[in-house]
């Protein structure tokens, strides 16, 4: 047995070319067998479906991406039925994971989004699944990823598709998948198991409002609906990509908040008590008074943000004690002005959530204002002007304690509240709440005081004043847009409230004294004192 093997070994040793030829023939034969089995399975699949078309292509759409287009309520074009050639290059696993099917790479524009539902950013942990899951739970039909970290949802695609090579950025949270590119969306169609599951998310009741003077301009899309119901009107306006659904008897109107229809003057709900034809327990308004709901469509009129076109030497501080709503105020200012805000510090979690000015040095001059919690003469005099945010110390201290031990939108544990951490925290931070305000009032060159509670109570008026203070023209459309999405990504749910009062009588005596000190300081500068809810009970 050994002798024949030795002869073979000597043969290939003398003839190395023959050895490699043998290996090549072996690999070729294996490849042919594999390809044959693949063609067989493709044929059986096609035969089972009764059609040779790709399952991603709709009945009316063409595989070239030139499917039928329809005009939407915004004057855009519906490219929902178009499909990218690049999708054919994806594997079945990539295209269909049971939750979504990959559609292709599409153009996106900050002024006119391809997907006009809600959006969110995460510049550190964005994944395809996270985006799909977020859009699906809100009832959207499409999920799109852009720039590796941005997620957009929508009910239809309103932009043309482009080459797959333009969606070439890896997801920040998973390097194995692509998440669009600069102004390019990788779009997935979310697969819903039943037609009945195609809901549009929960609409928010806004109230009863008087019919606008020019309803056609105020609410540009409308239709008469048989057996009118809230769901039917909300669904229609959601499909047309409007954020407001207004019911007027058997007629449904859709639009956005504008100076013609601000939603600021609510009427008595009894004026809208007309039963819907399609549901017994809901009111559908009438020709003179509309029942208004906010849909899940995101109003994109205030979503574009950028750095200042020219560097500014005029530095404006957004100053506050920690826990007084600084991050929330930054969110509002960015939406209202269209410019990024900066920070005296660097917080990676804020940058990852879309505050792109976080990375800039606070003296860069590229941001509209700069967040700071600093106090002391030297730090304050470095700024040319300041917006000073003040919040009820009882609320601010608890908010900062939650942030310190639970993160920006988390909560401190019961062990922290009942342990030594809370008393020590109040002892150190409560005096700082007062000294911070007193220092800015004393050393600030030009100070606009904004109370958190006032901003929350009348956002439109106070935010308008802040924009004017920053030296910018006011866009009422942007301000009304901000009102519709004022919470941002840093609002605690409020579901985990303490079952007891964490403040002892001794703590309250100290804090009440500090409130009186701040109130007196404000009044000495001819400013309104602290709001009534601050004052000792």
UniProtKB/TrEMBL annotation:
The keyword Repeat applies. The keyword Protease does not apply. Keywords: Repeat. Residues 43-92 are annotated as: Disordered. Residues 62-76 have a biased composition (Gly residues). InterPro entries: P-loop_NTPase, Sialate-O-sulfotransferase, Sulfotransferase_dom, WSC_carb-bd. Residues 99-191, 202-296 form the WSC domain. Residues 43-52 have a biased composition (Low complexity). GO terms for molecular function: sulfotransferase activity. Pfam families: Sulfotransfer_1 (PF00685), WSC (PF01822). Belongs to the WSCD family. This is WSC domain containing 2. It comes from Cyprinus carpio. The gene is LOC109055548.
């Amino acid at each position: 047995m050994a002798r024949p093997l030795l002869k073979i070994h000597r043969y290939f040793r003398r003839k190395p070319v023959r050895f490699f030829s043998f290996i090549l023939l072996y690999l070729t034969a294996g490849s042919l067998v594999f390809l044959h089995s693949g063609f067989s399975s493709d044929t059986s699949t096609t035969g089972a479906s009764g059609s040779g078309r790709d399952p991603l292509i709709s009945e009316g759409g063409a595989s070239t991406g030139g499917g039928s287009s329809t005009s939407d309520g915004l004057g855009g074009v519906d490219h929902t039925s178009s499909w990218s050639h690049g999708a054919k290059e994806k594997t079945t696993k990539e295209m269909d994971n049971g939750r979504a099917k990959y559609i292709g790479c599409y153009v996106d524009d900050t002024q006119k989004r391809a997907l006009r539902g809600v959006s969110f950013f995460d510049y550190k942990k964005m994944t395809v699944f996270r985006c799909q899951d977020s859009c699906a739970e809100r009832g959207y039909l499409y999920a799109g990823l852009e720039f590796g970290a941005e997620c957009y949802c929508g009910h239809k695609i309103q932009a043309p598709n482009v080459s797959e090579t333009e969606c070439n950025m890896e997801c920040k949270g998973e390097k194995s998948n692509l998440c669009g590119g600069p102004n390019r969306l990788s779009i997935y169609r979310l697969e819903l198991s039943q037609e009945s599951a195609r809901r549009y998310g929960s609409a928010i009741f806004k109230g009863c409002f008087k019919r606008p003077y020019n309803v056609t301009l105020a609410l540009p899309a409308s239709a008469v609906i048989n057996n009118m119901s809230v769901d039917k009107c909300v669904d229609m306006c959601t499909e047309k990509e409007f954020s407001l659904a207004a019911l007027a008897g058997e007629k449904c109107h859709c639009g956005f908040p504008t100076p013609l229809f601000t939603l600021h003057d609510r009427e008595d709900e009894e004026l809208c008590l007309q039963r819907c034809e399609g549901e017994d327990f809901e009111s559908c308004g009438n020709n003179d008074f509309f029942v208004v709901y906010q849909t899940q469509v995101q109003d994109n009129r205030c979503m574009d943000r950028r750095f200042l076109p020219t560097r500014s030497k005029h530095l404006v501080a957004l100053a506050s004690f920690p826990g007084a709503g600084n991050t929330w105020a930054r969110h509002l200012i960015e939406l209202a002005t269209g410019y990024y805000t900066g920070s005296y510090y660097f917080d990676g979690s804020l940058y990852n959530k879309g505050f792109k000015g976080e990375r800039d040095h606070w003296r860069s001059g590229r941001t509209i204002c700069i967040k700071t919690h600093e106090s002391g003469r030297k730090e304050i005099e470095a700024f040319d002007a300041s917006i000073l945010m003040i919040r009820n110390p009882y609320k601010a201290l608890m908010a900062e304690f939650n942030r310190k031990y639970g993160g920006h939108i988390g909560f401190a544990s019961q062990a922290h509240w009942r342990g030594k951490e809370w008393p020590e925290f109040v002892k150190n931070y409560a005096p700082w709440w007062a000294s911070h305000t007193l220092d800015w009032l004393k050393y600030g060159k030009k100070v606009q005081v904004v109370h958190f509670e006032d901003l929350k109570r009348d956002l439109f008026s106070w935010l308008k004043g802040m924009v004017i203070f920053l030296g910018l023209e006011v866009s009422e459309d942007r301000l009304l847009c901000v009102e519709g999405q004022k919470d941002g990504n840093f609002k605690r749910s409020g579901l985990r409230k303490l079952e007891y009062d964490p403040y002892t009588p001794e703590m309250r005596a100290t804090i009440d004294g500090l409130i009186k000190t701040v109130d007196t300081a404000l009044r000495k500068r001819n400013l309104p004192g602290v709001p009534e809810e601050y004052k000792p009970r």
